[in-house]
UniProtKB/TrEMBL annotation:
Chief location category: membrane
Name of protein: Adenylate/guanylate cyclase domain-containing protein
Family annotation (SUPFAM superfamilies): Nucleotide cyclase
Record domain Guanylate cyclase: where: 622-753
SMART domains found in the cross-reference section: CYCc
Length: 839
């Protein structure tokens, strides 16, 4: 059956508990201010111990300011929730002891930013007003028992002791702060993030907007929305890393402790609320069993998996995002549990609103988790999802969340209003954005990532089924069974490498937690007879479970957090022992790496086995020489560090090129570079390998020349010479030994380089005969060698068009011929037209 619901009139409520549930949404912004204020204050206090001098004083004032704003948020919530005016007046008097400290702290922050003495003098004036206010507050004379009543709370009129707190910031902002921010905003934006700048200004404005009420004028107080600038400031601090927040959140497990501080508080509140606020009449509905079991199981499974996942590796962002996702899912199931019981619909509505305040962030958090799981950056388009999610979160505590309800045999289902539809839109956008990234990377994703994605998708399908009963279709929602995908999600993330250390941390924590669990369960069973007097066995067991299980999880979490450092120390001890065993092996490996960095692998192996290397003759090796033209002249105009850096950059690139082309680096002499192919392991492709390497080296130097020319800087030009012939190779020396080659072929290769043309590759006749079928060459005359013999020289231009598109990169035909040559085939002439054929 479909029902509409009208909220009761606040003036007709005489019950304190009903008054609290009616006013619950108006206190939530204050609680947000409390959490954000304390969060920022805690990090600011930590910064105190890592700074000195004026920076330490600034950090202290920032911490005090945020703490005061957190307390102000608490006061705003109490003004909305507490019906007893006498109690509320007493709380205002005591809590304003902390709120007054906001005044001098804020003006000192302005002094630290501006370095203008006038702000420091105004800070002293603020401290005088604080002391004056303390005199009244300690006597209980801070406020009159006269009130301004608004829908969002009761505001008392201040006495003369507190009125300066309204006047001084009002004057100070418009006379000092506003002109400073107006004329110095460009300079400030260089030092701090834009959100930080805007947040502080709005925070000042909302603080002074409370002044008329304190002074006795019925003007709408803006401090109710103080959580907005606090969130802006928090965002600005995250973006500017003003307080080293990223280090604290992940490197020092800060987010882990914050996350589970919130979870611990929620578990205790849940247990206490059920124990004290859930009466026996709640079970009058005979159909509460078994429909209340699935959401209850889903809630506790999600919380348990969140503890395991986040605690397994607090430094990993993917773990924290997964934990947030699980907790958000838990809040959805939390609001479903009481709908199966006989409770006042006002209570059901408020619990749902508070739950959706968190659950509305699901599209944003789940999208980030999925993107992290697939290793993708966050697209800018995801901001649309963030904005809609935040809007839904804000609107969840308004009448736009639900519009009446349906009553089915399996419980009450809220009738959807604007917020669920907006969440659907956010989910659709998130699905499109994330789906596009998944499609790009799907084939590269590991199995665990695909399982995690599947569990998120399955959760979305489960949640979509809630659409039908919320629109009058008598179809039980399977969203109550979210423990199925959440369990898969948790295990998938653990499989992705969630453990920062071996799993002894979890096992150790579990053993300690079991002691507390058994004691809690035993104490609960002792209470069972009392419940059986009024409830049946199943109802009594369910009630005790709702009271006990949050305490069990809280105990597990508490032990897990405090036992983790000890468990990690044990793990580190095991790791150190294992590392000690491997040190000898690692030392041997390092020695081998060093040896391989000096000598070819086969030569190094021979020396390791025999203690020496036997010289060997190679009938065919190809030697490549390079040399920079005018190196000495250019070097004269360069600093020594600059010279060495540029030369190292060039030779490093040469090393990579020859390594790709199966050549062996031999040595460098000044600006000359020498390498060879076909040794120490003979092959048939060494002339081709040398020519490919030479083309790459020339291309690299041409690119460097173009860049230097555009920058109007001097550049180096290169000569390259190549010759193929017989050599003798071996290791010379006993200390600082080196692999080297000897023979007339070395001298010929050197002559090919020295007689070459700048920017060209000069090759000998013997090399030309080996590569002319694949490379375009030009005859450039003869040269007289050391023995007086005349030798032909050729300029290597590029790979022939038949075998390459651009003359530098070989095509498939080139490589097919290369493979045949590598296997021992030879290229021979078929006719005078020099057509070629592979035999």
């Amino acid at each position: 059956m479909e029902y509409t619901y009208q909220l009761p009139n606040i003036e007709s409520i005489g019950d304190t508990w009903t008054y609290f549930w009616l006013q619950l949404p108006y206190g939530i912004p204050g609680i947000i201010s409390l959490v954000v204020g304390f969060f920022l204050s805690a990090f600011s206090f930590r910064r105190i111990f890592h700074t000195s001098g004026e920076d330490r004083i600034l950090s202290l004032n920032v911490a005090i300011s945020f703490f005061g704003y957190g307390i102000l948020g608490l006061v705003l919530s109490l003004r909305a929730w507490i019906m007893d005016r006498e109690l509320l007046l007493a709380l205002n008097n005591w809590l304003y002891l902390f709120i007054l400290l906001i005044l001098p702290s804020n003006f000192y922050i302005c002094y630290a930013l501006s370095r203008k003495k006038v702000f420091l003098y105004y800070t002293y004036l603020c401290w005088i007003s604080v002391i004056f206010g303390y005199v009244g507050l300690f006597q209980g004379l801070g406020f009159h028992n006269e009130w301004f009543d608004y829908q969002f709370g009761k505001y008392p009129k201040a006495t003369n002791f507190i009125k300066p707190f309204g006047i001084i910031p009002l004057v100070g902002y418009f006379v000092l702060v506003l002109p400073f921010f107006t004329f110095q905003w460009k300079i400030l934006l260089i030092r701090i993030h834009k959100s930080l700048f805007i947040g502080y200004n709005v925070l000042f404005l909302m603080t002074i907007s409370n002044a008329p009420v304190l002074l006795g004028y019925n003007v709408y107080p803006g401090s109710f929305f103080i959580f907005i600038p606090l969130i802006l400031i928090a965002y600005g601090i995250f973006r500017s890393d003003f307080l080293d927040v990223n280090e604290l959140l992940f490197d020092r497990n800060g987010l882990f402790y914050i996350l589970f501080g919130v979870v611990s508080f929620s578990l205790i509140v849940l247990s206490g609320t059920v124990a004290l606020g859930l009466s026996h009449s709640a079970y009058l509905n005979d159909n509460w069993f078994p429909h209340a079991l699935p959401p209850t199981i889903s809630f506790f499974v999600a919380i348990f998996m969140a503890i395991i996942v986040a605690g397994s590796n607090p430094q990993a962002k993917i773990n924290q995002l997964c934990a947030f996702s699980l907790i958000i899912t838990a809040f959805y199931n939390l609001q479903s549990i009481p709908t199966k019981l006989e409770l006042n619909y006002l209570i059901l509505l408020r619990i749902s609103q508070v739950s959706f305040l968190i659950f509305s962030l699901a599209p944003s958090i789940l999208s980030r988790f999925v993107l992290k799981a697939i290793g993708s950056e966050r697209p800018k388009s995801l901001r649309v999802v963030d904005l809609i999610s935040i809007l839904c979160s804000v609107l969840s505590i308004t009448p736009y969340l639900h519009n009446g309800y349906y009553h089915y045999d399996y419980g009450i289902i809220h009738k959807s209003s604007v917020v669920p539809y907006l969440l659907g839109v956010a989910g659709f956008f998130a699905f499109i954005i994330v789906g596009r990234e998944i499609r790009k990377r799907w084939i590269f994703l590991p199995k665990e990532s695909k399982v995690a994605l599947g569990s998120v998708l399955l959760s979305g399908v489960f949640l979509l089924t809630a659409f039908f009963p919320s629109h009058g279709f008598v179809i039980p929602p399977i969203s109550d069974y979210l423990f199925i995908p959440t369990t898969l999600l948790g295990f998938a993330v653990l499989k992705l490498g969630a453990f920062s250390l071996p799993g002894r941390t979890i096992r150790f924590s579990q053993k300690l937690a079991n002691l507390g669990i058994f004691s809690i369960l035993f104490a609960s069973l002792l209470q069972m007879p009392k419940f059986l007097e009024k409830l049946a066995f199943g109802e009594s067991l369910f009630h005790i479970t709702l009271v006990t299980l949050p305490l069990v999880l809280f105990n597990y979490l508490l032990v897990y957090v405090f036992a983790r450092p000890l468990a990690e120390e044990l793990d580190r001890s095991y790791i150190l022992l294992e590392q000690a065993k491997k040190e000898a092996e690692l030392a041997g490996e390092e020695s081998e790496k060093l040896l391989l960095n000096i000598l070819p692998k086969s030569v190094a192996e021979e020396i390791k086995i025999n203690g020496y290397c036997e010289p060997k003759s190679f009938e065919e090796a190809t030697i490549l020489f390079t040399d920079f033209r005018g190196f000495t002249e250019v070097a004269k105009n360069m600093e020594s560090n600059e010279l060495i850096t540029e030369l190292d950059a060039c030779f490093t690139q040469f090393d990579e090129i020859i390594s790709r082309n199966q050549l062996e680096k031999l040595k460098t002499i000044g600006d000359s570079y020498m390498c060879a192919g076909g040794l120490p392991d003979p092959n048939y492709t060494n002339p081709i390998d040398a020519c490919l390497a030479a083309l790459e080296i020339r291309s690299f130097m041409d690119q460097m020349k173009d860049i230097k020319t555009q920058l109007n800087l001097p550049y180096w030009e290169l000569r390259i010479g190549i010759h193929t012939g017989s050599v003798i190779a071996g290791v010379v020396g006993r200390f600082k030994f080196a692999y080297d080659i000897w023979g007339s072929s070395v001298n010929t290769a050197s002559r090919m380089e020295s007689s070459g043309i700048v920017g060209e590759i000069n090759i000998s006749q013997s090399t030309y005969d080996k590569v002319r079928f694949l490379f375009q060459c030009e005859h450039r005359g003869k040269i007289v060698d050391k023995n007086g013999e005349r030798r032909d020289m050729y300029l290597l231009k590029h790979i022939k068009p038949k075998f390459s598109k651009d003359g530098l990169v070989p095509n498939e035909l080139f490589w097919s011929i290369y493979q045949k040559i590598k296997q021992g085939s030879k290229i021979v002439l078929r006719s005078k037209l020099e057509t070629e054929k592979i035999l």
